[in-house]
Model the fold of this input.
Amino acid sequence: MTRALVMTAFLLAGCGTTSSLSRGYLDRAALKVDASKYPDAAAVVLYRSDRYLLETTGDDASEQHRHVAVAILKEGGFDLAEVRIPFSTRQDIIVLKGRVLQPDGTIVEVTPKDVLSDTNGKGERDYQARFFRFPNVQLGSVLEYEWVVRSPWVIGSDDQDTLGEFPVERYEFELVGSRALVFETIEYNSTKPIEVSQLNDGRHRLRFSLENLAARESEEWMPHWTFTEPRWSWRVLGYKVSTMVTSNWYRTWEDIVEGFARRAWTDATLYKDLTERPELSGCPDARCKVEKARAWILEKTSTIGVDTMREKDLAQAFKSGKASARERALILRKVLDEAGVDVKLALTTVAYSRQTARSFPEWEQFNRVLVYVPAQPSIDAPLVIDLEPEHCALGALTSGIRGQEGFVFWLEGGTVGQGESKGEWRPLDGAPCSENVSHDRITARLEGDGTLQARVESRHTGDRAERWEQRKLKDSPSDFRELLRWRTGPISPLARYSDGRWHDCAPRSGECGYGVSIGAPRYAVRNGGRWLFPLNLSQPAFEGLRGFERKHDIHIPATAGTEIEEIELDAPTGFHAANLPDVVADAVPGLAIRLTAERTPRGVKLTRRSTLTPGIYPREHIAKLRPLVEKVRAWRNTVLTFEPD
Done:
């Protein structure tokens, strides 16, 4: 990262710009905010606009404009003081300016010295960024900035991103496109359609505005924001070559994937310097080649901590040992193709991870790239290979992928830069991956003075093992101590932890977790000759489903699974358990529970097992879930009684 003076951009912004999208700063009246209207908000977006200009006369070009004004109301809004503008090496920032309106009315301008530049990218698809932090931000400051990025091509589509977690007073969208372009739009979760009109010169204009948007509500177990918030997408269906002929752009799903297909099949630069290959010469058939090539890519790289859809230089990613599922898929497809295996790629969206529309083809809907091996000699049924999870067997799929449909595609004909993509939607079938299980085994004893001594071994398998390994890799020692405090806190205000340590994590063999010892003086209460033992040793569960009013549907994510908690408790010498909690077994769609208790020669053994089934359930379904949640809560509120033998 190097510090850079972007004097040109600021001169353009300050002295008049060649972009018709730039509107200049808002007047002071538009920057006033009534903070009393937002008692719980850390910031409020007073104004945001996104504008596009698509030109096809002369050289193709696009301009993308963003203008934001946001008021900082609490410390939680200070993160908004940092602004990042990503762009590719073939794009230019032609407008960039910002200012702070302080509570006392003074204005502080962002200057070139405040701007940093990250320009490490070299290829045309590599991204760089300009970013700056507003100076002297304080409570009551209003931050305003504007930028315009120019591209030497026509942007073909866009899927609106979230407006964020803060309330928005006004949002505006506008797109002006050449008369030769044919557009299609879609609105989600909104009754206000995009306004489509034609300017006097024949150009198209799309407009959309929203006012007084409430802050995004935060509720546990709620669906991804795309299922609830108003948003839109637009795309260019085609280009009118003449009044009689239209050249298709993004009319079909094949059009959407064509650029990616050409890159995957014919772009030599994508695989440049990727010289290492698995040893497949001894394989007698296609299945052997698939098995060995997949094992090779899993051995050489890991997806832990890497964004699923990242696409970096493949040789660099391979050498680093860290590759995304997308990078792995591209490498595996190339290797299998070279080995003579019939192989394709597939794109899909993990179940319930975002709202999609089959009727509106767009790249942004996808968030997983798969390798698809059709049936062929030695392979009786298609193999769907998801290279994101580390723990799945060949052809096995996680619950978020299994049962979904994927767009399977390939390239026909052509050399470098040529060819036509073909594809179709197909079901993604396969055996289930190993189950996602969290297993807490707690061995504890109650000493003669009421002190509790316990050892917790928390182990996770399946997808959860990978998530815990990712946490192990990124957590600092202080983060781990916070985890241990979180685990200890619900047991007793006097509880303290010791000897906390991560286990050796090996998610490919299916396990990751940690262990910790916990001691709590005066945990049990002496009542006459008996000990009263609260079951706070059991972890709280499903607290987010206990609210009296549910505002949103209930989303049980694809990473859900089974939780098992086993507590083996030794009674004090000379005492035995006089009571046990009732056995409970119950189930409704989405949740099943089983709670058991038994006496042992040394005390008691208590087991809680719960299984969540992924899906989105209507909020009214909470009426069926809550009785089970309350049973689990009542179980944890049980007080065991230990009496003298």
